[in-house]
Specification:
Layout (H helix, E strand, L loop, with lengths): L3 H15 L7 H25 L8 H15 L10 E5 L6 E4 L3 E5 H7 L3 H16 L2 H13 L14 H17 L3 H17 L6 H11 L16 H10 L9 E2 L3 H11 L13 E3 L6 E8 L4 E16 L5 E8 L2 E8 L4 E5 L5 E7 L5 E8 L2 E8 L4 E4 L9 E4 L2 E6 L2 E5 L22 E3 L2 E4 L2 E4 L3 E3 L2
Parallel strand pairs: 1-3
Antiparallel strand pairs: 2-3, 4-17, 5-6, 6-7, 7-8, 8-9, 9-10, 11-12, 12-13, 13-14, 15-16, 16-17, 18-21, 19-20
Helix pairs in contact: 1-6, 2-7, 3-5, 5-8, 5-9, 6-7, 9-10
Length: about 475
């Protein structure tokens, strides 16, 4: 019979194996893995029931979600686990994971995410990261070591015994409600972002997700996702600080043909002149002017936008959806983004320094800003859909930038350097299921004339 001392000794061994990740004999490691999987499998049914059961997505959406999940799982390193994803039938926006590879997301959160695959990858990557780092089982064992193990004694202790698993399951639910802990959430944020980037998703999706959750109306939709997590602003800053690390290290351009192309592009006008509907033609001037003048080809009149701003430079995005203006504001350069109707939709206000020049990315989702400061000039990329910034010049002093299809180029001294953003691969369902139009019967009444009157017969079921 083992007493309390023996119980604590075995518990300490398991904590070392699972929590600290110390190398152990295969039998002990196998026992720890079996405990983790059994713990998650035993707890999952109760949580699924609590959240309204499993929700069956429409076929096309289910294939899309499963493809995102599969790409993330392919980047995981714990080969002994078989990950699974369950959609819960709850309007509450939430997502969580259990030890052993069990990942859950509610249909409420899926509705909030919509069709943004980068946001979905951020959520699922975060939960996979919890499992990868064993945050759940670690928290359970720590809690049990402090509150339960000292009170329980069993004969011939077995870590897969029904009693111990029952108590561990109860502890897991309690810890899940309280959260894995601040540092665990930070670690899951960064690893989840890394998994998403390696799987071909935009790493800025995690920032967009946090912004979407912050903007959601709590009175209309329960917002419990990340409820127990650290301050969203702090988490956002950490994720934003990692964006530059996903860009390639700037490399000197030596290809003669590329250099000639860069010289030609720099000496030519690279900005789109009209909006996406070819209505407003931008009239570019060579000096700062009050507002920006455009020619309206529909009314054959000139219009003035941003008339209260001193505009130094203006350029439509490559697709013509937005017009960027470099203006003088509060003794430093500011960048305003207008929609194709002339309304300011965003001002870049968190840029660390003075913006002296800018250029659009080919897809129109980012702007490369040349920013001057006490330490010199550098290139900062602004993510328009995430309100985030990344310094991509790696500390090199810059003077001029060009964004071409194959990367972002900038000058340092006499040399051109090239850096490339992280590659993103759109989700494509391998075997799309065609939508089938189902024939439905139609109720068709019959009109019968009887003398000078008409009457309707009982409707009959007839095919359309």
């Amino acid at each position: 019979m083992r007493g309390k001392q023996g119980y604590r000794r075995v518990a300490a061994v398991l904590v070392l194996l699972v929590v600290l990740g110390v190398a152990a004999p295969s039998s002990a490691a196998g026992l720890a893995a079996r405990f983790e999987k059994t713990l998650g499998a035993g707890t999952a049914p109760a949580l699924i029931k609590e959240y309204g059961g499993e929700y069956v997505l429409p076929v096309q959406q289910r294939l899309w979600v499963e493809e995102v999940f599969a790409r993330l799982v392919a980047q995981s390193e714990r080969e002994e686990l078989e990950y699974s994803l369950t959609v819960l039938n709850s309007k509450e926006a939430n997502a969580f994971s259990l030890p052993g590879g069990y990942v859950f997301i509610t249909r409420g959160l899926l509705n909030l995410i919509g069709s943004d695959e980068a946001k979905l990858a951020a959520v699922l990557g975060h939960e996979i990261a919890h499992v990868e780092k064993k945050h759940g089982v670690n928290a359970v064992l720590r809690q049990m070591g402090l509150t339960v193990l000292a009170e329980v004694g069993v004969v011939a202790l077995d870590f897969l015994s029904a009693e111990l698993l029952r108590m561990a399951g109860l502890t897991l639910v309690q810890v899940l409600q309280a959260g894995w802990g601040r540092e665990a959430e930070y670690e899951a944020d960064l690893l989840g972002q890394e998994l998403a980037a390696r799987a071909g998703f935009d790493p800025a999706g995690a920032i967009r997700l946090l912004d979407a959750l912050a903007a959601a109306d709590d009175s209309e939709q329960a917002m419990h996702v990340f409820r127990t997590h650290p301050d969203p602003g702090d988490r956002r800053d950490r994720l934003e600080s990692k964006l530059a690390s996903y860009w390639s290290e700037p490399a000197v351009v030596t290809d003669v043909q590329v250099l000639e192309r860069l010289i030609q592009c720099r000496n030519s006008h690279q900005h789109r002149r009209t909006d996406s509907k070819d209505r407003y033609v931008l009239e570019v001037s060579g000096e700062s002017t009050a507002g920006v003048t455009l020619f309206d080809q529909q009314t054959q009149e000139r219009v003035l936008w941003a008339e209260n701003a001193l505009v130094k430079e203006a350029a439509w995005s490559p697709q013509g959806d937005y017009l960027a203006l470099l203006v003088d504001g509060q003794a430093q350069g500011e960048l305003w983004v207008l929609n194709r109707w002339g309304h300011v939709v965003r001002k870049l206000e968190r840029v660390p320094g003075t913006i002296t020049a800018f250029c659009w990315s080919p897809d129109g989702t980012m702007l490369a800003l040349e920013v001057s400061g006490p330490s010199g000039s550098r290139i900062v990329v602004a993510y328009l859909d995430a309100d985030a910034y990344a310094e991509v010049s790696s500390g090199l002093s810059t003077h001029g930038a060009l964004w071409l299809q194959d990367g972002l180029y900038f000058l340092n001294g006499e040399n051109w350097f090239r850096t490339v953003p992280p590659e993103t691969v759109p989700v494509q369902v391998a075997e799309p299921v065609p939508l089938v139009l189902q024939r439905k019967r139609v109720l068709t009444p019959t009109l019968i004339k009887e003398g000078s009157t008409f009457r309707l017969t009982r409707p009959e079921l007839t095919p359309p």
